Amino acid sequence: MSRRVLALGALLLVPALACAAPVVTEKQPVNLHAIGMFFVFVLATLAITWWAARQTQTTSDFYTAGGGISGFQNGLAIAGDYMSAATLLGLSSLVFAKGYDGFIYTVAFFVGWPIITFLMAERLRNLGRFTFADIVSYRLDQTRIRTFAAFGSLTVVCCYLVVQMVGAGQLIKLLFGLDYRTAVMVVGVLMLVYVIFGGMIATTWVQIIKAVLLLVGGSTLALLAMAEFGFSFETLAARAVEAHASGFDIMGPGAMLADPVNAASLSLGLVFGIAGLPHILMRFFTVPNAKEARKSVFYATGFIGFFFLVVMVLGYAAIVIVGTDPQFFVGGDVKAALIGGGNMVAMHLAKAVGGNLFLGFLSAVAFATILAVVSGLALAGASAISHDLYATVLKKGTATEQQEMRVTRFATVGLGLVAIFLGFLFEHQNIAFLVGLTFGIAASTNFPVLIMAMYWKGLTTRGALAGGFAGLVSALVLVILSPAVWVTVLGNAKAVYPYDHPALFSMPLAFLVTVVVSLLDNSARAAREREAFDDQFVRAQTGLGAAAASAH
């Protein structure tokens, strides 16, 4: 069953992934500092995995660390999940190139957290057990809803896995001097070790260590950079304006926000997409109660918000310190350095202010961020296959813990092989657009069904399925019809859909179809599903749902 689902997911993703412009990067000389620090990190995390494997005895331990992670620890782990290499490298390069526009993009990544804090965290913890499908299927048809939820999760997970795997290969090719395919295989193998043997306990602690390293490394780099400006933000801004080709325009909205529809669509995807990312949602089941779930979001918000401000400082500092000197960029091409695997402005800044040793440290941290995110994604995908599809849909709740754990490990191996294969397949593709696509799909597919399941009594199985698939299909179709694919890749003169991001249209469509189909559903089953909402609401408020989900 898991192999069929994985194969289907891979085949469906191939057309979307192929819609990208090529990126070519050159292998650089071996960076011994980076490789040495990378091995120190790997050895430390393998020791954690060995320890975690001894603590992992049940499916609850494997999926959710037995619910024994504190709010502070989980907050760091959530921050680790969210602060990927794309955050450090991509967003700092975006601020470097676009100034204020890049900061707005950064803010859009951040402002989705209040939605999770006030609308979702407590109910997720009270109603769920292992995956977000536990909540969606709580009072709806288990078989059909869990199948849809697993499919939606795997779609998002595979999209994000491709981003991380290709990014890892290009990053290590540039910074460590290793072969691209070697780097991809290293990431894939380490991911399998962390997840198969250590489960959520190992993944959580890898995320915590990575988050601390990223916060310390980013903050240190920002302090070293600010020392060049006498720790004065005013001096930094003034010199950045003098050095940038756009001058004072970098301090105000520019071309990225010129089209309000496109800007709104991008913002909607980034804001609501986070509430539909399965590896983020899974984190709320690792804490013992709803109070700790709220705490974890509070801490995560602080860590992530602080780091995004650091990223903004790095981007503006790089304008002055790094500049547009061709020696800092791959092949002397400044534009190439700002796309795909070449988002290296932060790394060039690290070398400029801290030398090769600090560059090596930050390179290892950036690689660690990819490794940790990939592990979380693999665990989320494997749990969707084993818990939702195998244990609940196929076995109807009769599978033993040993059988479910066995399927989980097979599913993890399958996901790892798929990730490595896709990493090889799309080596020369610019996968930067996939980040926005992933958030757009999550906002259009998972978020509408999840939020309606928690808050709307009228939701029915038919409505949830119709709305979810409407959001998924419309998001994918709009991306294919957008200028990035329809014109750039397929060679047509004009795009059918004139915007770059789908969420402004696909997400409202998902909500509309969900509501209309649910209201038109007058079946006996729909009536029972509406009546069951009152019991679900009580359990969501009192925290009885996790126990009920376990029995269910």
Polypeptide structure, described:
- Helix 9 packs parallel to helix 18 (461-480).
- The protein is mainly α and 552 residues long.
- It has a single domain (26-440), classed as Sodium/glucose cotransporter (Up-down Bundle).
- The longest helix has 50 residues, at 345-394.
- It has helices spanning 2-17, 32-55, 59-64, 71-82, 85-98, 100-110, 113-127, 133-136, 142-175, 180-227, 233-243, 260-273, 278-281, 290-321, 345-394, 401-425, 433-455, 461-480, 483-487, 503-520, 524-542, 545-551.
Helix and strand layout, with pairings?
Layout: H1 2-17, H2 32-55, H3 59-64, H4 71-82, H5 85-98, H6 100-110, H7 113-127, H8 133-136, H9 142-175, H10 180-227, H11 233-243, H12 260-273, H13 278-281, H14 290-321, H15 345-394, H16 401-425, H17 433-455, H18 461-480, H19 483-487, H20 503-520, H21 524-542, H22 545-551
Count the helices. How many?
Answer: 22
| Structural class category | mainly alpha
Return the CATH topology. Sodium/glucose cotransporter
* Percentage of residues in strands: under 5%
CATH top level assignment: Mainly Alpha
Q: How many extended strands?
A: 0
The outline comes out as globular
Keywords:
single chain; 552 residues; mainly alpha; Sodium/glucose cotransporter; 22 helices; 75% helix; globular; disordered N terminus; disordered C terminus
